[in-house]
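Example A, followed by Example B.
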Amino acid sequence: MTDINQQTRPPLHAPRPSEAAASAPADRRDALISCIELFFFAYRDFTGEPDAVLEEYGFGRAHHRVLHFVHRNPGIRVADLLAILKITKQSLARVLKQLVDEGFIAQRTGADDRRERHLKVTAKGAKLASRLAELQIRRIETALAKAGPAGEGAARDFLLAMIAAEDQPAVRSLLRIGAGGNPGATAGTTGGDPAKGQLP
């Protein structure tokens, strides 16, 4: 039914140009909020299957992140792992102790500096890291195939842009991503300097 009151009620004041322009940003804001929500749902499903596997071991997502980056960067220093994950030493120590105690990660002291600790996955750790990665590889591969030929480049550019600008050089170095957004060699070389925007 037509709202007569809405039809006949005079406006409180004539819309100013600035107010008319404000409607466009409002629409844009709604679109961006939808993107946020899509990101939530995508992340929920991206982590859902690995979470179920991790529960079998009594692990969580923090264990997954540590296992992943140690697997991808054999011999990584604890200091560099902290720089990647941006968590406290206490948080990492708790997760790392469990992974070491249960035989998923091995650690050794540095040859040049005995205060340093270097990490690598054991055969057991590599098996679990690969199992978790395969679940997420399949999901990403399926999504990229549906996105079309330009989907992978656009997705990579978007994800890089989501990272804080000051961290992007370090992430590009870690993942061997060139200026065009394409990955080069796989990760696996250690010894970067996070203070200079370089990670192992």
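Example B, a separate protein, is given below in the same form.
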Amino acid sequence: MKTVGQILKKKRLDLDLSLEEISNRTRIKRFFLKAIEEDNYRVFDSIATVQGFIQNYGQVLGLDTRQLLAVFKRDFGLSPTGKIEWRKEFKPLPLEEKKHLNLSLLAVVIGSCLFVLWYFRWSILPPPLTIYQPKSAMVTNSDHLLVEGHTLVGAKVWVNNLLVLADEKGDFSQSVLLLPGVNQIEVKVSYKNKTRVKKLDVIYHPAGK
């Protein structure tokens, strides 16, 4: 049974074509064409590249490219170490090496899942909200209160229903006018239709009263 390389080389010689002529027609470097004819696929970075080159080469020679690829897949494939090799040369990995490979793959999968969860977490969860000041149940003798906090960059912020612009780091501040007695401060943040609200009480005792 002939290999893909043998089939391509025989057909090229039957047509009296040189590798240079094939290279000019396919735009594939002579080095790679020669490697294919010699069934030396270890010089290629990926099996997809090899299959693409075989298909182009076969089309120029007028061969059935589906049959060529079937022959290639019959004889060659990716070894357990990720190299393109003869299938008859495949050797099972040693148990210890296989264990390390499985652990590495598991780590990659877990890492990818964690990254996806981290990246899209605020599409699922309400945006974070930290209020630096004031503290709940704070007592003040000033009728102006500065509300400061932090949230997710890009989130919208409201302080007592007044829209506040957060900076490029997600920090925000807003002055609020207080009335004598207990004042409720409401801070609301929203991102991608997810909302978080925090409420706290501030007591205003005017000076001298």
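On Example B: The chain has three domains: 4-89, 92-124, 129-204.
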